[in-house]
Amino acid sequence: MASPTKAELRKIPSIDELLRSDELSDVVQEFGRAHVLAAVQQSVADVRRRFDEGGSVDLTSNPAAHLAAKVREDLAQLITATPARVFNLTGTVIHTNLGRAPLPEEAIAAMEQAARYPSNLEFDLQRGRRGDRDTHLERLICSLTGAEAATVVNNNAAAVMLSLNTLALRKEVLVARGQLIEIGGSFRMPDIMKRAGAKLHEVGTTNRTHAHDYTDAIGRTTGLVMEVHTSNYLINGFTKAVPTSDLAKIAQQHVVPFMVDLGSGTLVKLEQFGLPNEATVADVVAAGADIVTFSGDKLLGGPQAGIVVGKAELIDRIKRNPMKRAMRMDKVSIVALRAVLQLYLDPQKVADKIPVLRMLNRSLADIERQAENLRPVVEQALGHTGRAEIVSCKSQVGSGALPTAETQSAGIAIKTSSSLSRLSAAFRQLPVPVIGRLTGNRFIMDLRCLDDTQTFVDQLKLLNVSGRSAQR
Ligand SMILES: *Cc1c(COP(=O)(O)O)cnc(C)c1O
């Protein structure tokens, strides 16, 4: 595209003319004059700025039509549904960027009710007066974890923050050096600690921590002994960590509370899904932790939430922290969490009812069968642009749960004569975007999390690898 000359730029109609132009009349109808005016001003300013900077400006012979198209595109952004549904075929079951846990039907039904009608969220129906939103969850959480008391906040990051701020304000928190995690984004334990008003006291070395490292460090300035689940990495080789139950004893002997940030936190034994054995929340409570924090939307398979369980006296202090209000859970999430927790009351059905567990539980044979059915359909959609084959691959749990655990899975791998990035873009441009992963010279779709085969197949005819804009 050639840069426009000054004379061409002068051809840009005035903002007033543009607003009254035929090209924009229906847009004005739809979005109202104020929004269109702002968008037009922005588009014109963009063109002028790029021209001033000497860049190439895409102005056709009809500047009014060109600008109108830009304005239309800009405003259409406002009304697209987003975030929108995608297919998570990355092989990472709990994928933070893709919204983590899909919820069970029971939770979805409860959310709809809570969203539509007023509820007794903070109202005691028996006494007819103000109630507490935690009451809908506390007993249930206690039954499932064996804890004395519980409270909930927006997410586990908030649970950690609030617990530290309540229990260790202006005091020291002992943490093993090997557990000072960064989970991504800005969640780094040392920074959280600082913002929570607590002082980090690292003990031990990166690979080894002994009981005496804690007993040497513990004293009058210690507010909390903390264990952090090393969610997204593993320290291998010459290593030593102090077992949770031993840490609990050390803390108790020194009359200091002991907190465990479990991160993912599971309520069921994971060996049944072929995954490594992980301590459940109940195990950690039984081992003597005074406070345990974990996520609602990781292995638990529920909505975004941070759950804090532990000793009644400590939970009571946490609940009374004024910051709790700033982190409280929303009513729609509360009913969803309750519905999910209720499913855990029946251990027989839980693996079937909760999508995260169901997907982790899927047999390899089942996934392979699905791959065999889908391979020819995918290959047909590719036309002459590529070949599809069945591959064995490995799914992972994701979101910092079980960093190294992988489970055998199957998928469809595509080799293309076109570019790989164009191929993966074509899958992302489908009505329900398909997110796979690029490995070597192939685009791989791990089928472990594909439960709606029909929708997947139906839209494949729209796959456009060639890049020609048949449909957009
Ligand atoms: C994921 C994680 C968190 C943060 O939990 P969110 O639910 O993402 O807020 C905190 N600590 C650990 C160890 C984690 O794995």
Number of separate strands: 15
CATH class division of the largest domain: Alpha Beta
Q: pLDDT below 50 for ≥5 consecutive residues: which ranges?
A: none
Helix content: 40-55%
Mean pLDDT: 91
Can you name the CATH architecture of the largest domain? 3-Layer(aba) Sandwich
The major pleated sheet works out as:
7 strands, mixed
Q: Any ligands, ions or cofactors bound here, and which? A: pyridoxal-5'-phosphate
CATH topology of the largest domain: Aspartate Aminotransferase, domain 2
End-to-end distance: 22 Å
Q: What share of residues are in beta strands?
A: 15-25%
User: Could you say which overall geometry the principal axes of the C-alpha atoms support?
Assistant: globular
What order do the strands of the largest sheet run in, or round the barrel if closed? 4-10-9-8-7-5-6
Helix and strand content put the structural class at: alpha/beta
CATH superfamily label of the largest domain: Type I PLP-dependent aspartate aminotransferase-like (Major domain)
Describe the protein.
By secondary structure, the chain is of the alpha/beta class. It folds into three domains: 6-78, no CATH class; 87-95 and 360-462, Aspartate Aminotransferase, domain 1, CATH 3.90.1150; 105-353, Type I PLP-dependent aspartate aminotransferase-like (Major domain) (Aspartate Aminotransferase, domain 2, 3-Layer(aba) Sandwich). 40% of the residues lie in helices and 18% in strands. The protein has helices at residues 6-10, 15-20, 22-31, 33-52, 63-79, 105-116, 138-145, 156-167, 189-195, 211-217, 244-253, 281-286, 312-320, 331-343, 347-353, 355-361, 364-382, 420-428, 453-459, and strands at residues 87-88, 123-124, 129-130, 149-153, 172-176, 199-203, 222-228, 258-263, 291-295, 306-310, 386-398, 401-416, 434-435, 437-439, 442-446. A seven-stranded mixed sheet has the order 4-10-9-8-7-5-6, sandwiched between helices. A four-stranded antiparallel sheet has the order 11-12-15-14. Strands 1-13 form a two-stranded parallel sheet. A hairpin with a 4-residue loop joins β2 (123-124) and β3. The radius of gyration is 28 Å and the shape is globular. The model has no long low-confidence stretch (mean pLDDT 91). The protein binds pyridoxal-5'-phosphate (PLP).
